[in-house]
Amino acid sequence: MCGIIGITKNKPDKIGHEIFDALTRLEYRGYDSVGMALISSDGISVLKDKGNINDVGHRLNFKEIMGSTAIGHSRWATHGPPNQINAHPHSSNNGKVVVIHNGIIENFMEIKSQLIRDGFTFISQTDTEVIPHYLSKLLDEGKTMYDAIVSLTQLIKGTYALVIASTTEPNRIYALKKDNPLVIGITDNEMYCASDIPAFLPFTRDVVILRDNELAILEPGKFQIKLIPSGKEIKRKPHEISWTAEAAQKGGFPHFMLKEIHSQPEVMKTQLKTQDDVFSKFVQHINQSNKVVLVAAGTAHYASLVAYHTIPEFSGKIVVPCIASEWETVSHIIDSNSVVIAVSQSGETLDTIKAIKDAKKKGAKILSVVNVTGSTLTTISDEVIYIHSGPEIGVAATKTFTSTALAIWRIAKELAISNGKLSEDELEEFTQAIERMPEAVKYMVAHSEAKSRDLAKWFATKKSAFYLGRGAGHIIALEGALKMKEISYVHAEAYPGGESKHGPIALVEDDYPVVFAIPNDNTRVKMMGSVQEMSARGAITIGVIEEGDEEMKEVLSHYFEVPRGFSRFCSTIPYSIPMQLMAYYTSCAKDYDPDKPRNLAKSVTVE
Ligand code: F6R
Question: Could you tell me the distance, in angstroms and rounded to a whole number, from the CA of residue 371 to the centre of ligand 1?
């Protein structure tokens, strides 16, 4: 949510063009309005409006703007509707200070009231606007910008990635972080700050990731980081990013989502390079704990259910799955013998971070499974497993779901070994399922695409659908339904197969879509019953089944076949591929943009 970019250069350049391009590369974060400010000693000029980057940027001629220091923002509205006035940047009344912000200032109302009493005029309905006014007030009282920012941090409560500039120091950008992401990009003549690395990747691979309560002071070619409020200087070496800007582009596919679906075999291969001992560290903590609590949101929550499905069997531990925004309910059972496993692609989902902070206070061990290196979650965890999926630009998670699931299956395997829970044959089957995953996913993408495209034409005419599965199949159904609803706006609901008789079946009528995930595991026979119940009521049944399951083929209206060897172990991964493709092609058939579903943001950094 909210994309931030700040650039300062040693000489005037086409800075508006760079801001435009950087904001375009941050589009995946989700936004409703766009703006930029050019800073010079003569003043600050702000251009902003509601709409997408292409429209607003062209209408307001971003690309024509020349200068050496500028900041840009894509806003995802929280306080005040998306409109020109509420769009960022926000300036002080005297026009000397300008600010962009990602996050929420919780106590802005009381600060605003005081500033109004002090004579400041507010233009927007945003929480952010208190910041430029407050800073300009302190600057007028003779404080330096640094001291003013320290005072600001003592006044405001909430979450923020803040980028601040002023006419008094026109070649300086101040970048401050608490709970929301900010990264710095370094070159000899320029300095960048942004919400995410792709924003400046065409210009530099040398990156420093800011941590909470750090203030970066950027000038062309140099930067300083101070811990706030102590002022202690932080020396942090830049690290080099290995992935290319090209990796963050579409690479010949019509949408990022399709590119990301197709990239899964490669992602799986990268994941498999992670050594087993990384997973064993999680295993030690799990074995020493009295219980395991899983915390995550959305797709990450569904991926975390692989742990719910496996850890009890392979360790005998109680596992409690928790949706991050419902943390309060389970918070009471956390103690110093608990292990909390947080799962998050971005590592920035605020509900997940808040849950982890609470668990940490109670002494729990925090283990996380994350994609984005150096994200907030990784800085507060005791152990981290990176899923190494590369940047995921499509808002709907695909490759990060399968890659996270694989990481958790690998934890499960190490757990089974450590506790002697599997026979040699079973262990061999498990190892094979993991090792063959890149090839299996490649096969599934290649063999599901044409059928998914065909079925999508029919799916696009439907208003609602059921997704059913039991055990691991239920996880696949949950994720399949989420993909369908979020990008094609078909009301898709997932249920455990057995539960469908307790209400949902009332909705089934002729031509009603029901999608099944049916690995050849101990749920198969009961799932056969579910298919028949639905068919008997006129449903069109689409199953993802094991290759050669002739009985299933006879009862289903349509089917996708998954190679053998993935039923007992790792089914969540190959069985999900047709679900991703059906959702993708249904969205295309309805002429929607699958990369940018309405109302959704890639990273949910508000509660
Ligand atoms: C769905 C999707 C979201 C995210 C959720 C958590 O396709 O992408 O449901 O999974 O917002 O995000 P992370 O994994 O970044 O914590």
Answer: 11
Closest residue to atom 16 of ligand 1, CA basis: 344
* Peptide linkage before 89 cis (omega within 30 of 0): yes
Q: Is the CB of 293 under 6 A from ligand 1?
A: no
pLDDT at residue 528, as a whole number: 97
Give residue 248's pLDDT.
63
The CB of 2 under 6 Å from ligand 1? The reply is: no
Cα separation, 532 vs 500, in Å, equals 12
Could you tell me if 217 and 174 are in contact, meaning their C-beta atoms sit under 8 angstroms apart? yes
Mean pLDDT of 156-175: 96
Nearest CA to ligand 1 atom 7: 396
Q: Give pTM, 2 decimals.
A: 0.79
Q: Among the atoms of ligand 1, which is closest to the Cα of residue 602?
A: 8
Domain range 253-435, CATH architecture? 3-Layer(aba) Sandwich (3.40)
Query: Would 253-435 and 446-600 be classified into the same CATH topology?
Result: yes
Residue-wise pLDDT tens digits, 570-582: 999 999 999 999 9
Q: Report which protein residue has its CA nearest ligand 1's atom 3.
A: 298
Domain ranges (residues) in the chain: 3-249, 253-435, 446-600
Say which residue the tokens 């929480």 belong to: 127
Nearest CA to ligand 1 atom 9: 298
Task: Tell me the C-alpha distance between 66 and 44, whole Å.
Answer: 13
- The closest of 582, 547, 540, 583 to 563, measured between CA atoms, is 547
- pLDDT of 5 strictly over 70: yes
Confidence of residue 51 (pLDDT cuts 50, 70, 90): very high
Q: Which residues are catalytic?
A: 2, 602
The top-level CATH class assigned to 3-249 is: alpha beta
Q: pLDDT per residue over 260-306, tens digit each?
A: 999 999 999 988 988 888 999 999 999 999 999 999 999 999 999 99
Instruction: Tell me which fold the domain 446-600 belongs to.
Output: Rossmann fold (3.40.50)
Pocket lining: 97 vs ligand 1, CB cutoff 6 Å: no
State the pLDDT at residue 241: 85
Which mutation among 295, 346, 607 tests ligand 1's pocket best, with the greatest number of atoms within 8 A of CB?
346
Q: Residue 388: pLDDT band by 50, 70, 90 thresholds? A: confident
Write the DSSP assignment of 211-275 as a string of letters: -TTEEEEEETTEEEEEETTT--EE----EE--S-TGGGS-TTSSSHHHHHHHTHHHHHHHHHTS-
